[in-house]
Amino acid sequence: MGEMEALRKEADNLKDQITEARKVVQDTTLQEAVAGTALVGRVQLKTRKTLRGHLAKIYAMHWGTDTKFCVSASQDGKLIVWDTLTTNKVNAIPLKSSWVMTCAYAPSGNMVACGGLDNMCSIYNLKGKDGNVKVMRELAAHTGYLSCCRFLSDSEIITSSGDCTCVLWDIETGTEKTIFAGHLGDCMSLAVSPDFKMFISGACDFTAKLWDIREATCRQTFSGHESDINAIGFFPNGNAVITGSDDATCKLYDLRADQELVTYQDSGIMCGVTSLAPSLSGRLLLAGYDDFNVNIWDMLKAERVGVLAGHDNRVSCIGVSSDGMACCTGSWDSFLKIWN
Amino acid sequence: MARDMSDIDILKMELEQLKKEVSTPREPVSKTSKDIMEWCEAASATDLLITGVPDDKNPYKPEKGGCIIT
């Protein structure tokens, strides 16, 4: 038997062991556990604001922390920081590269970041002395597109890339602190745990991985999706992970039981999930799809309880404000909408 | 990384990871799903997208009789 064959056999053996170990603790299902819980009532959210200003497809948006400001990125080559209450543009930042795929707001509110087909993550200081917003750092080392980025603080940011890795950067020095390798396909999305100790990544190898930031290791790997994972998020208490995929489903994975708990799917939904965000309690899962809609799921009962229909093109990004009061959707139709 | 690695190196990397993951501590689903359910139900009471925001407390709802011109 060749070395490849032997290794493959060993890997399959270990995968079987893991599958068995997961079955052993599967003494019930989430569906059984919530059998006595009533379905959450029909959720009908209205568009309260429409943020107009981008001139091309919006690819990403991110709420600030403890604020009604958010940042959006469009392939018109601009990052816009919005005051969602007034719909005013606080900052309109022209980008060197218009092929932007992601953006992020630092928890402090002092910085925003973005990146895309330029393979770099550019950090912008919003609170510069002269009032002008300038590029503070260009984090370059990825050999593939930047699909997602999230700040840990003003001095650290995590990026995911089409080069199949995620990287933890020191913003001050502009260098890579840690490279998280393991995915076998483009990393499409990442999310940081509520306690900032872990992060999760979703990739085109159909898996989601949980990483320990300081130990620099992959703790757990979750499979089950039948296509690329485009969107990923933490359940608000940090003990579960939600993924959205091109296979038209979302899944909830339990970190402590190390397995999938439920799949959010409907025979009527045949298009990919582009984005997702849980509500503050985690009871609602808002997911954006290629068919221009956002479906709202009761996360415990795994049933659809609402739809946000208002965009004229794909919903590419979605986020819930940190106080849980409003949801923002961004679309290829160039508009952002605020709903509650 | 995976793009630059040979097939055999990729397999070795996978194997190393699987060996670690075999010994992941796993708690029973009965306990973990109960915890998620309880956490969720407790937090739902103050989840504004579920309870709704009364018009007079909704910063996004324009005041009656006025409009914001931007």
UniProtKB/TrEMBL annotation, chain A:
Source organism per UniProt: Coregonus suidteri
WD-type repeats, residues: 51-92, 139-179, 180-221, 222-263, 308-340
Short name of one Pfam family: WD40_Gbeta
Protein name per the record: Guanine nucleotide-binding protein G(I)/G(S)/G(T) subunit beta-3-like
Cleaved signal peptide residues: none
Lineage: Eukaryota, Metazoa, Chordata, Craniata, Vertebrata
Keyword tRNA-binding: no
InterPro entries recorded: G-protein_beta_1-5, WD40/YVTN_repeat-like_dom_sf, WD40_G-protein_beta-like, WD40_PAC1, WD40_repeat_CS, WD40_repeat_dom_sf, WD40_rpt
Family: Belongs to the WD repeat G protein beta family.
UniProt cross-references to CDD domains, sorted A to Z: WD40
Keyword Repeat included in the entry's annotation: yes
TrEMBL record, chain B:
Entry annotated with the keyword Cell membrane: yes
Membrane-protein topology: Lipid-anchor
InterPro entries from the UniProt entry: G-protein_gamma, G-protein_gamma-like_dom, GGL_sf
Family matches, as SMART domains: G_gamma, GGL
Gene Ontology CC terms: heterotrimeric G-protein complex
Entries under PROSITE patterns matching the protein: G_PROTEIN_GAMMA (PS50058)
UniProt function note: Guanine nucleotide-binding proteins (G proteins) are involved as a modulator or transducer in various transmembrane signaling systems. The beta and gamma chains are required for the GTPase activity, for replacement of GDP by GTP, and for G protein-effector interaction.
Protein name per the record: Guanine nucleotide-binding protein subunit gamma
Source organism: Coregonus suidteri
